[in-house]
């Protein structure tokens, strides 16, 4: 037997009871509908205690009538759930946890604040989770398998291209084959990096000396910049470093800097900065390049999303750089901010939370 849900008539939207009996009928109808849902629905009071639940929740959490008022954490102990539940601004997309009754099942918990109370809905997302996993494995395996044939092709093409007796009408063809295999190789490497970041749930975090890392990124940028002739400034306002994954961060920072170089007409100005903020620390790359129209900004971190495919290809882009940036930032609980005006320029910033900021060790 479940507890009865206290329903406020004002919450009923289009249902407008005309009499007391009518109202009771409608209330019963709503209650039965929630009871019949396959997803678990739980109403939690402001003390985190169970207030009301439907049949699916009763089956999932093995609840009994006497559990009314018990803390939700007595039934769902996953640390990810507690973190999600207690975050001040509850993220809209919920949290995925492994089922505590069957490790092969995956659940998604979603909380909607409801006055002083909270409505928790738990969905079974096992099928979605397995499909995601299959997609990740497939992309990872295909990329891995393509690596060796590509390396062999690149080696032979390189050798043939340098043959002095190569007929001139073949030379152009060889040049194009060399360019395209190198491009394919970059795509495969980026796909492999993406799958590695996605699969590694717990990556090793170490202290990163940001001054050192930024100087390294800046030196690489200067080398890449030779054919563009931009002026690149590096401004480091704090010695604070980060607790993070150095290899992945290096890749994310470089992607933003290389993009600024690629998408700025020759002789532009690019500023790279590392500053302390009220939230933590911020890495920013500002350019005075081609900019981005606002309707594209939301989708830029999708794999292979490119505003101008021709331009991206011409500059050697894989269309995966910002997807890599997004995943690396997710690992560090950091946010990506994109401010851009078409024809004026763009600023891409990574905002790292204070929890990941570390002051330089005293030697
Ligand atoms: P790509 O390999 O094509 O550069 P990314 O994922 O790094 O792929 O970037 C996605 C798209 O975002 C690019 O194709 C480009 O259209 C746009 N973009 C990224 N950075 C900038 C920038 N600094 N200025 C203008 N457009 C940019």
Automatic annotation (TrEMBL):
It comes from Psychrobacter fozii. Residues 141-356 form the Histidine kinase domain. This is Phosphate regulon sensor protein PhoR. PANTHER family: PHOSPHATE REGULON SENSOR PROTEIN PHOR. Its main location: membrane. GO terms for cellular component: plasma membrane. GO terms for molecular function: ATP binding; phosphoprotein phosphatase activity; phosphorelay sensor kinase activity. It is an enzyme of class 2 (transferase).
